[in-house]
Specification:
Layout (H helix, E strand, L loop, with lengths): L1 H10 L4 H11 L5 H29 L8 H28 L4 H11 L3 H14 L4 H26 L2 H7 L22
Helix pairs in contact: 1-2, 4-5, 4-7, 5-7, 6-7
Length: about 190
């Protein structure tokens, strides 16, 4: 089914990865098939496929193409805009639903770590010729910097892990709780 969906997506002009993604999205997450594949594939994906993907991306990244003050300034601007867009967008949305300021900022910091999906899209863009090798390298650097900054930003916004547990419920299925933090209670509580 995986290969069939990838092949169909490729044949209709969409990248094959999107066909595989749609199959995964359509599959019931709590179903026995999903649990079976997760158990069987987890080790293969995390030990072999994911490192191979990162190595492949690294081999395609040409940092030497980002040369000169202007190119590095553009790269810094890309990192800044990406960070502010992720942090700010999530912060505003989280505050709009009643999450406390520190919790909203922490959630924004976690969103900053979404580098893997960016790398997938960047590789597809480079492969299709939509982005240049220079822009690809700048965007890979942005994905690395934003991902690496997530943990320090999370510590900055939420403080020590004990404080974080007080700001967020420790029950696995409970919604975020802001009653003890600096904001109004979450409306769905």
């Amino acid at each position: 089914a995986l290969f069939a969906c990838a092949l169909i997506a490729d044949r209709i002009g969409i990248h094959a990865i999107f066909g595989a993604f749609l199959l995964g999205a359509a599959m019931p997450h709590d179903g026995s098939v999903a649990r079976f594949f997760e158990r069987r594939m987890r080790l293969t994906v995390t030990v072999f496929l994911l490192p191979a993907f990162f190595a492949y991306t690294g081999m395609r990244t040409r940092i030497d193409l980002v040369s000169g003050a202007e190119a590095w300034a553009i790269c810094a601007l890309i990192v800044l805009v990406a960070s502010l867009g992720k942090l700010g967008g999530v912060y505003v949305a989280a505050r709009a639903v009643g999450l406390a300021r520190r919790g909203a900022a922490g959630l924004g910091a976690l969103m900053n770590a979404r580098g893997l999906m960016e790398l997938v899209v960047l590789n597809i863009g480079l492969e299709m010729g939509v982005i240049s090798p220079v822009l690809f390298s700048m965007m890979v650097l942005m994905a690395i910097v934003t991902t690496m900054s997530a943990a320090p930003l999370l510590r900055l916004f939420l403080g020590d892990p004990a404080r974080t547990r007080r700001l967020l419920d420790t029950e696995p299925d409970a919604p975020l709780d802001s009653a003890t933090a600096d904001g109004p209670p979450v409306p769905w509580r």
